[in-house]
Amino acid sequence: GYWVLDATPRQWVLRKRGGNLEELGRELEREINGEQPAEYSPLTEADRHASRIYDEGVALAEAGDMKGAAARFKQAAATSASLTAHY
Questions:
Q1: N or C: fewer beta carbons within 10 Å in the chain?
Q2: By three-state DSSP, how is residue 74 classified?
Q3: d(CA 45, CA 17)
Q4: Cα(35)–Cα(44) distance, rounded to whole angstroms?
Q5: Could you read off the pLDDT of 47-70 as tens digits, one per residue?
């Protein structure tokens, strides 16, 4: 087992013969990375358009064109507030 101390920074105390460290691993994963985000669901035509622009930006980034990707991301953000809030 383990205990989580209410401290800043957060601290974990492990029992010398404690088990179930998988649970601690999951807790640390959530602490570090947060909860898994929900998949983005565009609601309006503007959201769908912004999502396509965003996907183009991802493709450009994966191809190594970071300047082009940044321009697409900015354009997508300007097109849809909900897409901006999600990502």
A1: N
A2: helix
A3: 57
A4: 26
A5: 999 999 999 999 999 999 999 999
Give me the residue label for tokens 């209410």: 6
CA–CA gap between residue 3 and residue 13 (Å, rounded): 5
| Burial (0-12, 13-18, 19+ Cβ within 10 Å), 52 | middle
Contact 39, 47 (CB under 8 A): no
Residues in the chain: 87
pLDDT in tens, 21-35: 787 778 778 877 777
**Cα–Cα separations (whole angstroms), residue 5 to 2, 11, 23, 27:** 10, 5, 16, 13
Of residues 43, 45, 71, the one with CA closest to residue 58: 71
pTM, full prediction? 0.58
- The whole-angstrom separation of Cα 43 and Cα 28 is 34
